[in-house]
Amino acid sequence: MDLEQKRLHALRSLNLLDTAESESFDRITRMASQIFQLPIAAISLTDHDRQWFKSKVGVEHDRIPREKAPCAEVTDSRDLLIIEDFAEDSFYCDSVLGLSGVRFYAGAPLVTRAGHCLGALCVLGPEPRSATAAEIAALKDLSSLVMSQIELEHAFGRVDPTSGLPNRLQFTDDLTDLARQRPEEERVLVALDLAQPDQLERLSAVIGPSASDDLVQEAARSLTAFLGPAIRVYHVSPAQFVYLAPAGAKTSTYQPELLRLLQNELVSAELHYAITPVGVTTAFKPGLSLPADCLRSLSSAVRETRASERPIGTYSNSHDIDYQRKFRLLNDFSAALSASDQLRIVLQPRLDLHSQELLSAEVLLRWRHPELGDISPAEFVPIVENSALAWPMTQWVLTTALDLLKTWKAAGKKIKLSVNFSASNLKGDIVDSVLVALAVRGLDYSDLEIELTESTLMQNSTQVLEKLDRLVGSGVALAIDDFGTGYSSLSYLQRLPVSVVKIDRSFIMALRDGARERTLVQSMIKLSHEMGYRVVAEGIETGEAADMLRAMGCDEGQGYYYARPLEIGDFERMTRSSALTNVDVAV
Fold first, then answer.
1. Residue 414 contacts by C-beta under 8 Å, 6 or more apart in sequence?
2. Could you cite one Gene Ontology molecular function of this protein (predicted)?
3. Which of 251, 575, 206 is nearest to 415 (CA)?
4. I need a labelling partner for 356 at 20 to 30 A (CA). Which of 16, 131, 407, 555 fits?
5. Under 8 Å between Cβ of 401 and 346
6. 352: helix, strand or coil
7. CB-CB contact of 392 with 337 (8 Å)
8. Which DSSP category does 127 fall into?
């Protein structure tokens, strides 16, 4: 959002435009007219294409075009403007005001605390004149009075209606004031996070929609009673309160007080066991930290404290940097999906362990960020999979892989490709999306294999079986990826329409550790065969491991011993080569 859009948003959020006359504003306008002894005065708000008068003296109409309006220039510059004679001003002489007989103009900006200029308090006259220093000072004071009145009339927007406490907007203003008064004073900001979102959802499901309101109201009363009238508490998000610790407090020494607060009876016994409140602190200097940055620091500390399952914590710069990087990667990945030079696929060959024949390849995604360089999939894939971009990412990989299969088919080359799907991909009309994508390219459904992890299948057991049956019934193969690392039961595995089990690399890497590890892998292969699965070993890095697996009867293998993930060109050269081992092309 650009600055003008933000300014217009700020103006409209105050609900001033096109509203009825107000004596509180008219009183100020009359004072401006009397001080300057001029017949015209107005509180002029700058909309996108007009100047609309919230209050006016000596004017019949309530608006003029924004084009060539002096108040528009005041809005853009956020500075005082005086035009002593319109007739002598080459720009304004033929404006609406100039042509109507106005010769003098003085306007002072109406600026919010956030720095958005709403318009101007202006005075106008039919004769050329100048403005004295006292008049200018008075006009500035009156413009400040207008803004105070606006804030007063919209004070309800600074109090949360549920808790009755000052809200995030008031917190921002108060910290801005503190920055002006004591910019170098180190202070401690405290946040109390009552509950996690899923806990609030469960409360609403069990008790009713009013449960969250009851929780907040009880906590607000307990918190203010515990802290006393000298400390102002702010309600900044649905289940989060913040306040400034007393002057002189340090994050290290305030921890016991924060723990005592958490041990206080914050909510009733009915709600007590349904929530897990946490408290966190962050140190800052008002003159060096924006209010929004302080709240972000507290949010980062809350996430880290909850992840560590501790009741109290403090802001860690390293964790905040990590979160900011994750946030940036997620936002930048959205742009990468539409860019032509950031994302690409590489292919990890899968071979028959006995014939050494190249059977298929796993499709892997790679991202070269324009500023950060190559981003490891181990870093960005989990971030994206837990967002709304999960399916767009999979769709990009699937589309690219199927386009490659189409090219190979035209060249007479037949190779199956395997694409990884996450749990979130199994929602919506996924089956039709996959089948249509294959059909429009003239591909056989058997050209595609979809890999799903054990945990993905178990988490969605009742919802996805029908979809998986439809895919398999159409000819698409399904594989269980990372087999052995999940928590699947044999009874459930028997119900899955999968044909391939991929033993996780952690088991293959441990083959040399001893007889117990080898027996485990042997048992996994035997069990999978007895259930009708074809078995693939992941992470084969040595010839010794390949020989062991071959002796155990494992069907296929993939890993660095055969080839690292290959660029498409290198993979195609590999398919033409008779030597299908030890292809050392790292990606």
1. 408, 447
2. cyclic-guanylate-specific phosphodiesterase activity
3. 575
4. 407
5. no
6. strand
7. yes
8. S
CA 418 – CA 485 distance, rounded (Å)? 20
Q: What pairing do the DSSP bridges indicate for beta strands 477-483 and 240-244?
A: unpaired
Round the average pLDDT of the chain to a whole number and report it.
Answer: 89
Kindly list the structural domains of the chain, giving each domain's residue range(s) and its CATH number in brackets, ordered by start.
3-153 (3.30.450.40), 168-315 (3.30.70.270), 342-575 (3.20.20.450)
Joined tokens for residue 256: 């016991």
Identity of the amino acid at 151: E
pLDDT tens readout for residues 537-556? 999 999 999 999 999 999 99
Q: Torsions phi, psi of 266, nearest 5?
A: -75, -40
pLDDT of residue 491: 59
User: How many C-beta atoms lie closer than 10 Å to residue 348's C-beta?
Assistant: 21
Distance CA 561, CA 542 (A): 5
Q: Could you tell me the sign of the dihedral formed by the alpha carbons of 446, 449, 454, 459, in that order?
A: negative
307 burial (CB, 10 Å; 0-12 / 13-18 / 19+) is exposed
Question: Which pLDDT value is given to residue 579?
Answer: 41
Neighbours of 549 (CB within 10 A): 25
Buried b (16+ CB within 10 A) or exposed e, 239-254: bbbbbbbeeebebeeb
pLDDT in tens, 33-84: 999 999 999 999 999 999 999 999 999 899 999 999 999 999 999 999 999 9
Q: Which amino acid is residue 14, in one-letter code?
A: L
Query: What sections of 241-281 are H helices per DSSP?
Result: 251-263, 269-272
Q: How is 212-230 classified by DSSP, letter by letter?
A: HHHHHHHHHHHHHHHH-TT
Q: Give whole-number Cα distances, 498 to 359, 450, 465, in Å.
A: 18, 10, 11
Q: Quick check: 104 and 38 in contact, CB under 8 A?
A: yes
Instruction: Select the more confidently predicted residue: 297 or 491.
Output: 297
pLDDT band at 380 (very low <50, low <70, confident <90, very high): very high
Q: Identify the pLDDT of residue 489.
A: 53
pLDDT tens-digit profile of 465-507? 888 888 999 999 999 887 777 555 555 667 778 899 999 899 9
- Of 173, 157, 153, 70, whose CA–CA distance to 119 is shortest? 70
Alpha helices (H) along 411-448: 430-440
Dist CA 218 CA 228 (whole Å): 15
Give pLDDT tens digits for 244-281.
999 999 988 898 999 999 888 888 777 777 888 999 99
Q: Which of 508, 571, 511 is nearest to 535 (CA)?
A: 508
Report residue 169 as tokens. 């907007």
Q: Which residue has the tokens 């709240």?
A: 295
Res 586: pLDDT: 36
